Amino acid sequence: MENQYDVNDVQQQEINIQDYLNVLYHGRWVMLASFILVLLATAVYTFTAKPVYQASSKILVEKQGSMEQALFESKYLNSQSTDIANQIEVLRSRTLAERVVLALEASPYRDSLAIFQPNDNGEYMVLRQQVNWILYNMAIAPVPETDIIRVTFSAGSAFEAAFICNTISEAYQNLNREFNLKEFRELRRFLEFQLKKKSEELRQSEEALRAYQENEKLVSIDSRTNELISQLGQTQGALEATMVEMEGAQEQKKNLEKQLEEKREQMPVEVTQVSSPLLNELQQEYARLVNEKVKYEALIAQDQAIDPTEYQNELQGQSMRIRAVQRRLEEEAQRIATTSMVSNPLEVVQILITNILNAETQIKGYTAKVSALRDVVDSYERELEQLPGQGLELARLRRQLEVDQTTYLLLNQKREETRIVEAGQKEVVRSIDAAIEPQEPISPKKRLNLMLGAVLGLALGIGLAFLREFFDDSIKNPEVLEQMGFNILSVIPQIDSEDPTKLAATPQKNGSVNGLLPEEGTVQARLVTHLDPKSPISEAYRTLRTNIQFQKLQHNQNALMVTSSTPKEGKSTTISNLAITMAQMGSRTLIVDTDLRRPVIHSIFNLKKDKGVTNFLMGKLTFDEVLKPTVVDNLSIITSGPLPPNPSELLSSPEMNEFIRLAREKFDVVLFDSPPIIAVTDAAILSTKVDGLIMVVKAHQTEKNAVKRAKTLLDNVKANIVGCLLNGVNVERTYGSYYYQYYQYYSYYGHDLKRRSKKTKTVNG
């Protein structure tokens, strides 16, 4: 059915969530330490950092309309629209920063500004360092969809931030004003120079005419000559005026070409600054694909055994991917090109080129006009040359005077027009909002920093917890052992030497505890099945005993070996408690300490290790002579005896086979404690002589590779692995609620029995 849930999927999801929670619970101290350290570091930085204040002003950059006629009905200045991008670059320029430094130097607040104060070493900043300081603390940004630029400055005090920000705005306005009036001033100076020159020529013409008339006593000429002189003077004046206009157009063209050259030098920088995150990503992807293709082609050239068809298909696929990235690059570049990031710089260049072409057209027109006027002047002069000598000279003088007067009046008129236009030049930069002193610093933001520090500390702690879990290759749960192919016999909880279960032991009259002396602390901690048979740990060992009994072992296969992959995994404790549980069931049980390198069974049961297995194998003692009883009924122990120099040879000897035969005949269960498998070959040798093998794995300690290696060594000698035991498990840390409730259930059960037993004794008393 569609609405039916998959129980296995739900259980798997719950297990995964529980695993994550267990990781967090296990790493809680790492998370707490990370949280406290990061939060503490953030707090120290936040409360010790110097405050930073930020003030901002707004500047309106207006676009100019059609330019006023500056000279001879032609547009002298280029009709460039205000380019926000260019104005931003002007604000970021070193030239403006130098002007700001000089303005601050001359201000009455100079001594209170940090830019003029010494550093910790008593050194003052030089001009270049001061300029860099201004540029570093200044931020320029356009207001979207407007012609307004926001100027922001950061400083150590509110007054300093506002004062320097306003100084930057004022310096920018002055610089812009100078740029706008520069060409008008150059034009005015040119006209004044020409006017002064023409004034001197006019004076000389007047003096020459007066002197000639006085000397020759010739005052007037006929009307036809007067008319010819007047026409020649007007034409000559028009010719000189046209030549002045042509010179002005040529000067204008030079200025425009100079501006165009400057813009062309800036254009590569401006265009390279135009970018976007997607464009950068596509460029990197394109470079990567091209690199892979080149490497692939080089590899194919070296290996001739590759199928050509496969090579062509792969090469075609790479080429298609490269072309796809190229198309996306073209689309992104086209999108950027149509935005304001590139349109303004290109628009300025286009306007400059258009104005240069217009100036060239005017120059060509002026050239043609000058040529035509010269032809007319030449014709008038030829007609005047036909006059008598005195009349011709007088006509020439009057003609020169007429020309100088006409040219002088024209230049004077144009100079006045230029002054009027210069005086009425419109300001394109205006301050909208002046910077005011901020009330609070922008940095450090204490509340935000502490919140970010807390979040970062917690996130770092969680990351470290999962990172530690990721690099932890130890066995954590029995499911991992099952995946390796082991049969899980039991899961033994961790035995704590300070666990309250020790209280279950009943003191005897002689001061012993269940037959063991009080100083035997190790015994009390390890022999939990003897001291506290009702504890959950004892129940886990009884589960181990039951699972071993139900294994498919033949009737006479009663010799089992307990080992581990590495040292200190709890195999001796495991074999001791397993033997006690079997003895409590009534089976005659024998523990044989065959760890002939580092034996510990004798210390667990407070016995001496002399007269043990090695004495029997060397033929010095009989089996019954090395047998030792214990305080536990039905449980005997044979210790290791003196440590031999050749343990492996003794365990592989025929005497060892005889020892195992006798042990099987005399006892129902024989348990051998052996060295770790990986460390020495003793365990592998002994595993071939016994009926089965139980491997102990320590939770959160034994690594997976060690268990795999141990299994491989045992498989090589065809050892009979009965099962695996996961030892030392922290039920709260590893298994979550189910195993924890299981543990609590048996704890409550044992405690309830003791409570009822105590109550019964009280009533009976």
State the gist of this model:
The protein contains 26 helices and 12 strands.
How many H/I helical runs?
26
What is the CATH C level class of the domain at 554-729, in words? Alpha Beta
- The helix content, as a percent range, equals 55-70%
**What is the overall shape?**
rod-shaped
Please give the alpha-carbon distance between the first and last residues: 66 Å
Radius of gyration: 53 Å
CATH architecture of the domain at 554-729: 3-Layer(aba) Sandwich
| Uncertain spans | 1-15, 65-82, 269-274, 340-344, 498-524, 745-765
The major β-sheet equals:
8 strands, mixed
Alpha-beta classification: alpha/beta
Strand-residue proportion: 5-15%
Tell me, rounded to a whole number, the average pLDDT.
76
Write down how many β-strands occur, each being a DSSP E stretch of 2 or more residues.
12
Kindly report the name of the CATH homologous superfamily of the domain at 554-729.
P-loop containing nucleotide triphosphate hydrolases
Tell me the CATH topology of the domain at 554-729.
Rossmann fold
Which strand order does the major sheet show? 5-12-11-6-10-7-9-8
